[in-house]
Amino acid sequence: MDIKAGLLKKDKRAAARLISMMENGESEAVQIIKECYGMTGHARIIGITGAPGVGKSTVTDKLAKQLRKEGKQIGIIAVDPTSPFTGGAILGDRVRMTDLNTDPGVFIRSMGTRGALGGLSKAVHGAVKILDIFGMDYIFIETVGVGQSEIDIVKLADTVIMVMVPGLGDDIQAIKAGIMEIGDIFAVNKSDRDGADRTAAEIEAMLDFNRSEEYRPPVLNIIARDNGGIEELIRLVEEHWEYENKSGSYKKKKSNRLKAEVMDIFRDSIMRTVHSMSENTNIINELIQKVMDKQLDPYSAADRLMDEFTENQRHKF
Amino acid sequence: MDIKAGLLKKDKRAAARLISMMENGESEAVQIIKECYGMTGHARIIGITGAPGVGKSTVTDKLAKQLRKEGKQIGIIAVDPTSPFTGGAILGDRVRMTDLNTDPGVFIRSMGTRGALGGLSKAVHGAVKILDIFGMDYIFIETVGVGQSEIDIVKLADTVIMVMVPGLGDDIQAIKAGIMEIGDIFAVNKSDRDGADRTAAEIEAMLDFNRSEEYRPPVLNIIARDNGGIEELIRLVEEHWEYENKSGSYKKKKSNRLKAEVMDIFRDSIMRTVHSMSENTNIINELIQKVMDKQLDPYSAADRLMDEFTENQRHKF
Asked: Which pLDDT tens digit goes with each residue over B112-140?
C-alpha cells in the first residue's frame, strides 16, 4: 500500500497505518508528514480532559455526532498514557464501534504508551497532523487529566474542555492549579445529579482565584448522555475560537506550541542518538578502560563521546 | 592566585577556590582537573548517609579525628541537596570550626544545589577529585539518605556507612530497599538508647531479605558522641576495602562508577548546548516563523537545530 497516496485519497486504513508507523518511530512516517505538512492547519483541535469516570468519552461522542449532523469530518484520538497496551481504550473503542466507528466520516484511534518510541506526546502530535492532512474538520484529543505528559498532550488543542461531575467537592481543591489553568471551557457533566450547581460555583470560585487573563472560561452544566447542553457546548467552543483569533492569543499560543514541539523533537532526536551510543558498549568500554588506566580523565572521555556524537550526526546528512 | 600550583602545594584556599569554580561550571576548573587527573586514585572515599538527626556529622567528625591520630589527611564534603544555599550545612561548619576545621590536616566543605551548574552530582564528583589530587588520604561524603540525587552521590564512595538510630521501628520498613542496598556497613548510633539491639536485629532481618551477594554488611552498635565503637567502625571499613579488592568487586564497581560519570558529563554537556541554543531566540524564532508560514515543518525545523548543534560542537574543537 502506498501510504502517502492512500492518505491523500482519504483512505482510513492508510491513516491508521501511518499513525502506527509514527508510534513505532519509523522515519518514513516522519518523511510523509514532512512532505504533506503544507496541508495541515485546517482542522480544529479540541482537547477533552477530566478525571476518570466523568464521562469524557460520552461528551466526545455526543459532540462528534452533533458535528457530523453539520457534515463535519471528525477524528478522535483517545489517549491513555497509563496504559502500556491501550487496553482500556481498546475496550472503549469496541463500545463505540457500534455507532460512531461505522460512520465513514469518523476516525477513532486509541493511543497508549505501547511502542510509542520517542514518547507518546510525539506520537500524538504526529497523529493529529496525519488526521489534519487527511482532511478532518475537527480532531478530538481525549485524555485523563492527570500528570505532566497529559498536560503536554492537551496543550496541543486549540480549545480544551475540562469535564467535571457534581460532588467532586474537595477533589476540585485537590486538582492542581496547573490543570485548572489548561481548561478553556468547564463542563459539569451529569448535572442532573445533586450538587451540580455547587460544583459549578466551586469552579467559578477557582476561576476567580486563578485566572488573571482577559478571557474567562465559561462553566456549563451538561448531561452528555441525554445530549443536554451539547449544542451549547459547541457554541462555546466557537466563541472561544473567535476570541482567540480576535485577541491574537491564538497566534501566540500556536507559536509557543510549535516551539515546544520543535524543541521536543530536537531533544528526543539527541537523546535517541545518546541512547544508541550508550548501547555501543565497544566504544564506551574502550574509553572507560582508558580512564581506569589513567590514560584519560572522565571529562576528556565525555569529550570523545561528543566527537563521536557529532561524527554520527554528520554522517546522517 | 595560580590555582593549579596552589593545589599542588597543598594550599587549602586553592582547593576551596577550585571547588567553587567547579560549582560555577567554569571550564578552567575542569581543565585543571584534567591536567592533574593522573594524581587521583590515592584517596579512600567513604560515604556517610542516613536520615536527618541520626548523627551523621558526629560519626564523620569522630572517624576523622581518629584517622587524624594516625596521621591521615582528611577531606570532608557535607552535601545537602535540599538546600539551595547550603544554609544548614554552613551552620554545621560553624559548629565544627572550633575543633576540626582549625586542624591543618582537615578540609571541610559544604555543598548545596546553589549555583551547582550541571548538577550537584557533577560538582561533588569534581570536589572529590580535587581533594584526591590535593593529597587527602580519606574523603568523607556526608549526605542525608533520601532521594535519587543523594543515592547517586553516595555511589561515589568506596565504602558507604549507613547510620541509623534505635527506635526507628517502622521507619526501617519505610526505607526503600534501594537505599538499604547502598549500605556497606550499618552503624546503629546512640546505641545507649532503648531498642538499639532491636534496631540492629531489624537491620539484620532486612539484610537477610534483601542481600544476595557474597558480602554481608556488618551491623555495629556505636555511640559516636562518646567515641564508642569508632575504632571498630574504622576496622570494618578496612575489612570492607580488603574484601572489595580481593573479590575484584572494587574494580567492577569503579568501572561502573566511571561509566556513569562519563555518561553524566556527556549528557550534561549536550543538555547545556541545547539549553544555550534554546536561549538563542533569534535562531529559534526564525525557525518557528518559517513553520508558522508552512515554509518548514516541525521535524525539519528540529533537523536544522541539530545541524546548528553539530556546527556549534565542531567550532569548539
From this structure: 865 555 577 888 999 999 999 999 999 99
- How close, in Å, is residue B210 to chain A by CA atoms? 29
ipTM of the modeled complex: 0.83
Q: Give pairs for A30-33: CB < 8 Å, separation 24+.
A: A30/A126, A30/B299, A32/A3, A32/A4, A32/A7, A33/A126, A33/A129, A33/A130, A33/A133, A33/B297, A33/B299
CA distances, A266 to each of A85, A261, B270 (Å): 27, 8, 12
Model confidence at B253: pLDDT above 60: yes
C-alpha cell at A28: 518514513
Check if B276 contacts A (Cβ < 8 Å). no
Residue of A nearest to B35 (CA): A297
Task: Give the pairing of strands B159-164 and B44-50.
Answer: parallel
The answer to whether the Cβ–Cβ distance between B302 and A269 falls below 8 Å is yes
Q: What is the pTM of this model?
A: 0.72
For chain A, say whether B38 makes contact (Cβ under 8 Å): yes
pLDDT exceeds 50 at position B41: yes
The pLDDT of residue B24: 86
Q: What angle do CA B309, A22, A143 make, to 5 degrees?
A: 105
Chain A residues close to B279, C-beta within 8 Å: none
Return phi, psi of residue A220, to 5°: -125, 130
pLDDT band at A135 (very low <50, low <70, confident <90, very high): very high
C-alpha to C-alpha distance for A307 and A303, rounded to whole angstroms: 6
**Is B266 in contact with A305 (Cβ distance < 8 A)?**
yes
Question: pLDDT-derived band of residue A132, with 50, 70 and 90 as boundaries?
Answer: very high
